[in-house]
Amino acid sequence: MKCLRCRFEDTRVIDTRMGGDGFSIKRRRVCNHCGFRFSTMETPVREEITVEKRDGRIEEFDRQKIATSLRAALKKGDHQRERVEALVDGVVVQLLNGGKKRLASAEIGMVVLDVLKNFDELAYLRYLTVYQSFANLDDLKNQILKNETTI
Ligand SMILES: [Zn+2]
User: Residues near 26 by Cβ (< 8 Å), separated by ≥ 6?
Assistant: First the structure.
Protein backbone atom coordinates (compact mmCIF):
# COMPACT_ATOMS: atom_id res chain seq x y z
CA MET A 1 0.00 0.00 0.00
CA LYS A 2 1.22 3.49 -0.87
CA CYS A 3 2.18 6.06 1.73
CA LEU A 4 -0.61 8.59 2.31
CA ARG A 5 1.85 11.43 2.67
CA CYS A 6 4.64 10.96 0.11
CA ARG A 7 3.01 8.29 -2.08
CA PHE A 8 6.04 6.04 -1.83
CA GLU A 9 5.12 2.53 -2.99
CA ASP A 10 6.47 0.64 -0.02
CA THR A 11 4.98 0.75 3.46
CA ARG A 12 5.30 -1.97 6.01
CA VAL A 13 3.04 -3.29 8.74
CA ILE A 14 4.35 -2.66 12.24
CA ASP A 15 1.33 -3.79 14.22
CA THR A 16 -1.72 -5.94 13.52
CA ARG A 17 -4.61 -6.25 15.86
CA MET A 18 -8.13 -7.50 15.78
CA GLY A 19 -10.98 -5.00 15.80
CA GLY A 20 -13.32 -5.01 18.78
CA ASP A 21 -15.99 -6.96 16.96
CA GLY A 22 -13.58 -9.74 16.07
CA PHE A 23 -14.40 -9.42 12.39
CA SER A 24 -11.91 -6.81 11.35
CA ILE A 25 -8.18 -6.36 11.46
CA LYS A 26 -6.44 -3.09 12.09
CA ARG A 27 -2.94 -2.62 10.80
CA ARG A 28 -0.51 0.09 11.72
CA ARG A 29 1.76 0.89 8.82
CA VAL A 30 4.92 2.91 8.43
CA CYS A 31 6.31 4.38 5.23
CA ASN A 32 9.75 3.07 4.36
CA HIS A 33 10.61 6.39 2.76
CA CYS A 34 9.36 9.21 5.01
CA GLY A 35 8.44 7.31 8.17
CA PHE A 36 4.82 8.48 8.11
CA ARG A 37 2.53 6.20 10.14
CA PHE A 38 -1.08 5.45 9.40
CA SER A 39 -3.67 2.75 10.05
CA THR A 40 -5.70 0.59 7.74
CA MET A 41 -8.73 -1.51 8.49
CA GLU A 42 -9.35 -4.81 6.86
CA THR A 43 -12.83 -6.29 6.91
CA PRO A 44 -13.88 -9.45 5.15
CA VAL A 45 -16.59 -9.44 2.55
CA ARG A 46 -19.01 -11.59 4.47
CA GLU A 47 -19.39 -14.85 2.65
CA GLU A 48 -20.11 -18.27 3.89
CA ILE A 49 -17.39 -20.81 3.51
CA THR A 50 -18.22 -24.48 3.36
CA VAL A 51 -15.77 -27.27 3.74
CA GLU A 52 -15.73 -30.35 1.61
CA LYS A 53 -14.46 -33.35 3.52
CA ARG A 54 -12.49 -36.07 1.85
CA ASP A 55 -15.50 -38.39 1.88
CA GLY A 56 -17.56 -35.74 0.11
CA ARG A 57 -19.51 -34.51 3.11
CA ILE A 58 -20.07 -30.77 3.27
CA GLU A 59 -19.62 -28.98 6.56
CA GLU A 60 -19.87 -25.41 7.65
CA PHE A 61 -16.55 -23.74 8.25
CA ASP A 62 -15.80 -23.84 11.96
CA ARG A 63 -13.40 -21.33 13.50
CA GLN A 64 -13.30 -23.42 16.63
CA LYS A 65 -11.81 -26.39 14.80
CA ILE A 66 -9.06 -24.22 13.41
CA ALA A 67 -8.37 -22.81 16.88
CA THR A 68 -8.19 -26.30 18.36
CA SER A 69 -5.79 -27.56 15.73
CA LEU A 70 -3.65 -24.44 16.13
CA ARG A 71 -3.46 -24.88 19.88
CA ALA A 72 -2.22 -28.41 19.37
CA ALA A 73 0.66 -27.05 17.31
CA LEU A 74 1.58 -23.94 19.29
CA LYS A 75 3.94 -24.01 22.19
CA LYS A 76 2.29 -23.44 25.59
CA GLY A 77 3.43 -19.85 25.78
CA ASP A 78 1.42 -19.02 22.67
CA HIS A 79 -1.90 -20.39 23.87
CA GLN A 80 -3.39 -17.04 24.91
CA ARG A 81 -6.86 -16.61 23.46
CA GLU A 82 -5.96 -13.35 21.71
CA ARG A 83 -2.96 -14.88 20.00
CA VAL A 84 -4.84 -17.96 18.82
CA GLU A 85 -7.75 -15.80 17.65
CA ALA A 86 -5.40 -13.52 15.75
CA LEU A 87 -3.95 -16.53 13.96
CA VAL A 88 -7.42 -17.87 13.17
CA ASP A 89 -8.27 -14.42 11.80
CA GLY A 90 -5.23 -14.62 9.59
CA VAL A 91 -6.48 -17.95 8.25
CA VAL A 92 -10.02 -16.66 7.72
CA VAL A 93 -8.86 -13.52 5.95
CA GLN A 94 -6.70 -15.57 3.58
CA LEU A 95 -9.56 -17.97 2.90
CA LEU A 96 -11.95 -15.11 2.20
CA ASN A 97 -9.39 -13.39 0.02
CA GLY A 98 -9.06 -16.60 -1.95
CA GLY A 99 -12.64 -15.99 -3.02
CA LYS A 100 -13.72 -19.62 -3.01
CA LYS A 101 -16.91 -20.53 -1.24
CA ARG A 102 -16.24 -24.22 -1.00
CA LEU A 103 -12.88 -25.48 0.13
CA ALA A 104 -11.39 -28.91 0.57
CA SER A 105 -10.11 -29.50 4.08
CA ALA A 106 -6.61 -29.91 2.64
CA GLU A 107 -6.79 -26.39 1.17
CA ILE A 108 -7.66 -25.00 4.58
CA GLY A 109 -4.78 -26.97 6.07
CA MET A 110 -2.47 -25.34 3.57
CA VAL A 111 -3.59 -21.87 4.61
CA VAL A 112 -3.13 -22.74 8.29
CA LEU A 113 0.37 -23.96 7.48
CA ASP A 114 1.07 -20.78 5.60
CA VAL A 115 -0.01 -18.63 8.54
CA LEU A 116 1.98 -20.76 10.99
CA LYS A 117 5.09 -20.68 8.85
CA ASN A 118 5.18 -16.91 9.21
CA PHE A 119 4.52 -17.14 12.92
CA ASP A 120 6.66 -19.95 14.26
CA GLU A 121 8.68 -22.56 12.41
CA LEU A 122 8.31 -25.19 15.14
CA ALA A 123 4.55 -24.75 15.31
CA TYR A 124 4.49 -25.13 11.54
CA LEU A 125 6.29 -28.46 11.75
CA ARG A 126 4.12 -29.61 14.63
CA TYR A 127 0.99 -28.73 12.71
CA LEU A 128 2.19 -30.85 9.82
CA THR A 129 2.31 -33.77 12.25
CA VAL A 130 -1.04 -32.96 13.86
CA TYR A 131 -2.57 -32.63 10.43
CA GLN A 132 -1.97 -36.31 9.76
CA SER A 133 -4.35 -37.23 12.55
CA PHE A 134 -7.38 -35.51 11.06
CA ALA A 135 -6.76 -35.27 7.34
CA ASN A 136 -5.29 -37.32 4.62
CA LEU A 137 -1.62 -36.62 4.33
CA ASP A 138 -1.56 -37.40 0.65
CA ASP A 139 -3.92 -34.52 0.01
CA LEU A 140 -1.61 -32.23 1.87
CA LYS A 141 1.44 -33.51 0.04
CA ASN A 142 -0.31 -32.98 -3.26
CA GLN A 143 -1.20 -29.45 -2.26
CA ILE A 144 2.37 -28.74 -1.24
CA LEU A 145 3.70 -30.18 -4.49
CA LYS A 146 1.16 -28.21 -6.47
CA ASN A 147 2.14 -25.07 -4.62
CA GLU A 148 5.81 -25.63 -5.22
CA THR A 149 5.36 -26.21 -8.89
CA THR A 150 3.25 -23.10 -9.33
CA ILE A 151 5.77 -20.84 -7.60
ZN1 LIG B 1 5.95 8.36 2.95
Answer: 16, 17, 18, 19, 39, 40, 41, 42
- Cα of 10 from ligand 1 centre, angstroms: 8
pTM beyond 0.85: the answer is no
- The residue ranges of every structural domain in the chain are 11-42, 50-150
Residues in the 5 Å CB sphere of ion ligand 1: 3, 5-6, 8, 31, 33-34, 36
Rounded to the nearest 10 degrees, the angle between the axes of helix 121-134 and helix 63-73 is: 120
pLDDT tens digits for range 94-136? 888 888 888 988 888 889 999 999 899 999 998 888 676 555 5
